Amino acid sequence: MNNFRFYLPTELLFGKDTHKNVGAEVVKHTSKKILFVRLAKASLERIGIYGDITASLAEHGVEYIELDGIVPNPLLSKVREGVEICKREGIEFILAVGGGSVVDTAKAIAVASRIDGDYWDIVTGKTKMNGGLGLGTIITIPATGTEMNASTVITRDEDLVKRGFMTICPTFSIMNPELTKTLPKDRVAQGVLDMFMHTAERYFTPTQAVDLTDRMQEGVMKTIIRLGSKFYHKGYDYDTVAEVTYASTVAHNFTLCVGRQGDWATHNIGHELSGEYDLPHAESLTVIFPSWIRYTRGVNPARTAQFFVNVFGVENNFFDVDDTIDRGLEAMENWFKSLNMPIRISETYIKDVDIEKLANKASEGGNRKLGNFKQLSHDDFVAIYKLAL
């Protein structure tokens, strides 16, 4: 196990009707006008919370400026728009209401509002962060875990380069499982696969002596598989969705990765697909992850087999580890397909894939390597994209 320092500064408010207390939470942290970064008004009205939120803010005397128009793969241009508002209006606190794209946009606005340059200057290392504005969130879809971590993923409009960066954790986050009642089935599946992959990326580690976090991760993934599938196939019920909602937070609030390295190559290779072709993030993961496993299966076959045995319940063939992995891949891909998720690029709407362009972007012209379970470079990316076709 590696040395670690673990600190989680986000206060989590979880349960029925918790979003109705947002005004009281905001005034604990600011007495000034706030930026209200949100899903489209019509979407929040469909969920049934726009009126609750604005009424709670009004009750506590909170003035706000609204910012919407955020797309599923959030764009740098919207971050810049929010920063301009914050600097012009002297805003010190942001309330983000929506899913990962909305919250990630708000995080980027929060840190970029504290520097003289552009948010992308932080991503590229040209400028260092100088803290960030206060940030509260109300989550409308369990998926990314962004409500309780510092992870932020933004796409630069001009060249469709998509990059993740560690910014700030929210000050508080509100999670009401009831807000998922109107989620379409495809969004349920995407959320379930996203939270699953946040855990799976951590499971494939080069770090030794991590049995405790192995068992914790296995438990979270098995819960996501069982109850996420129930949510998808049978629809909303509070107890099921409450567990799935909290699983999405635990999967990515760093509780599961203390003392160990994760891999994250699948996410980063997949980012190029979603950045270049606007493929939903979860679909980029389900088409890349099986191919990544096929490509890296020789690195630590025992761990790969352990993943399939302990998470997917595949019988362990002690005499033939390759057989265990093959059957595990089949079981995992069958689960992906049961949620109507693609396992090959050809099963998505992408019909003409420029693999060399994707590999060049992922490797930043051959200057960037990815992964810790197995470190990968340009030629490896080409091979994985080809396996995923």
Please provide a written account of the structure.
This protein is 49% helix and 11% strand. The model has no long low-confidence stretch (mean pLDDT 96). It starts with 10 loop residues before the first strand and ends with a helix. Strand 6 and strand 7 form a beta hairpin. It has helices at 22-27, 41-47, 50-59, 76-89, 100-112, 119-123, 185-203, 211-234, 238-251, 265-277, 281-296, 301-312, 321-338, 355-363, 378-387, and strands at residues 11-14, 34-38, 64-67, 93-98, 134-139, 151-156, 161-166, 172-175. The strands form two sheets. A six-stranded parallel beta sheet has the order 1-8-5-4-2-3. Strands 6-7 form a two-stranded antiparallel ribbon. By secondary structure, it is of the alpha/beta class. It is built from 15 helices and eight strands.
Please provide the ordered H/E string of secondary-structure elements: EHEHHEHEHHEEEEHHHHHHHHH
Largest sheet: 6 strands, parallel
Low-confidence stretches: none
- What is the strand tally? 8
Overall outline: globular
Helix-and-strand structural type: alpha/beta
Strand content: 5-15%
Mean pLDDT: 96
Helix content: 40-55%
What separation lies between the terminal Cα atoms? 37 Å
Q: What's the Cα radius of gyration?
A: 21 Å
User: How do the strands line up in the largest sheet?
Assistant: 1-8-5-4-2-3
Instruction: Give the helix tally.
Output: 15
Throw out a few tags for this protein.
single chain; alpha/beta; two-stranded antiparallel sheet; 15 helices; 8 strands; globular
